[in-house]
Amino acid sequence: MNATATLRRWAALGQFVRTHPPAVDWTPASEMISAAGRDAAASQDVLDDLLASSGRQWFPLGDPLDGDLDFGVHRWLRDSREESWSDWLAWILKRDADSRKVLKLFGVRPKVMPSGCCEIEREFSTQNGRPDLVLHFGDATLVVEVKTASEPGDDQLGRYDAWLKKARASLGLVLLAIDEPENLTTTAWKFCSWETVSMGLRAWAATWLRAGSLIEAALTLAFCGAVEQNLLGFGGGLNAPRTAHYLETWLERNTNEKNKPRQ
Amino acid sequence: MKKTNLDSDLLREGFKSYHKALFAVMEFRRGAGRIIQDAVEKSLPELAAALKMDADELREGIRPYTKPYNLTEKFDGSSAEIDVRIPREWNSKWQLWFYLWIGDGEVPYFAAQVNLKNPGSAIDKLAAACKDLDYGETYGLISETLPSDGSRDLAAVCDRVLNRWIALWKKVGGLRQFISKRS
Questions:
Q1: Confidence band (pLDDT; 50, 70, 90) for A189?
Q2: Interface-testing mutation among B5, B6, B9, with chain A (most A C-beta atoms within 10 A)
Q3: Quick one: pLDDT at residue A149?
Q4: Which strands make up the sheet holding A119-122, listed edge to edge?
Q5: Looking at this predicted complex, what is its ipTM?
Q6: Gap between the Cα atoms of B138 and B117, Å rounded
Q7: Closest to A32 (Cβ–Cβ): which among B5, B6, B17?
Q8: Nearest-CA neighbor of A51 among A251, A258, A255?
Q9: Does A232 contact B at CB distance below 8 Å?
């Protein structure tokens, strides 16, 4: 068969595929959906037990993932409203501005751990822009850039890093987001996930509850619930397996923390 | 307390079926994309005339597009789009989108949409000319649902929406007037 004939043959085949698209066999996909449904049903039982356990052990007010609390219908907490998330997070941090706890929350481990309280500023105005959260630990400064829906840009993180480098002592730049971005060329940031922060704040809320600070605890738990539902997508149904895994991890971690011998 | 079972039914079933399921998704994407592109290409002369644009310019600008572009871990599966967009340049002052939207909790639909960086009076004029227009500050769209029971054929729905879209642009006098150098 010469080249022209071959091309004609392929053109005919191509035309056939265009006009008679092969029927798609959805059976394997349906089997996977059924399997996911079975997993979800089994996980829902586990999740119900975990929620009951969380309420019993830590939150007599109820776990924020429990019941009919639907933060998804709260317009103020839509994932695109990044200022709302930053404002509320800043408010919680200010309730307990203990330097060690705040740094631990964001996974920052400086060589010399500052003591005392930190000072937290929202949209602090610099020559290089307005970082979402600027935290002052004495002379040392930490910047937290908060992302919920939008993507961080190299330019933005680069500018904040340049500003931090001028500070007397920099504790670095933390990018708080749902997932770690993959396409940034700048490396001048440390990633911290919303999952990590929400787990940390659950522990803060548990401490406040034990201390009788009910309002701080309730508002912090509400924030955790909003993060977990609206940003992380936790809940029942097909999300039950990952939600149960998250809650199980938190319960184990917090129980271990509680039982850890004091040094 | 019970432990979450990571050795799940889904993992077992996925081991057997994942590649076949993925193939079905890719095949569906390819097939639906082809149908949409065929419908757009077929109606292009009429569409260009209604928009008062150059048909060749539009034809050269046709680009297939899907959201998500790749199936990655980050894709939560809550919605997906199979699109044809015009023109090629992302930073164009205007963009036309023709797409099948599939998502959680809503009936899938096929839509024709215009996006304008500086809409001026364009969206208001489109809305005045079409009571079914769904619109925002910088976009306007018309659509028709595609129930997942297969009762409507995608190609037929594409044709109907495109015919309505062409009629709408004829009514408002075309797109060209709204994308002058000024805008």
A1: confident
A2: B9
A3: 81
A4: A119-122, A133-137, A140-146, A169-177, A190-193
A5: 0.71
A6: 6
A7: B17
A8: A251
A9: no
- The single-letter code of the amino acid at B180 is S
Q: Is A43 on the interface with B (CB under 8 A)?
A: yes
* B109: DSSP letter: E
User: Does residue A166 carry a pLDDT above 90?
Assistant: no
Which residue out of A31, A178, A229, A251 would a mutagenesis test of the B interface target, given it has the greatest number of B Cβ atoms within 10 Å?
Answer: A31
Determine the pLDDT at residue A89: 95
- Write the single-letter amino acid at A13: L
Say yes or no for a CB contact (<8 Å) between A28 and B20. Answer: yes
A48 in contact with chain B, both atoms CB, cutoff 8 A? no
Dihedral sign for Cα B109, B103, A150, B83, please. Answer: negative
For the segment B22-66, what is each residue's pLDDT rounded down to a tens digit? Answer: 899 889 889 999 999 999 999 999 999 999 999 999 999 999 999
Could you report the per-residue pLDDT of B117-126, keeping only the tens digit for each? 988 899 999 9
**Of A116, A108, A88, whose CA–CA distance to A201 is shortest?**
A88
- B114 to chain A, closest Cα gap in Å: 23
Interchain pair A248, B3: CB under 8 A: yes
Classify burial at B70, counting beta carbons within 10 Å of its beta carbon; exposed 0-12, middle 13-18, buried 19 or more. Answer: exposed
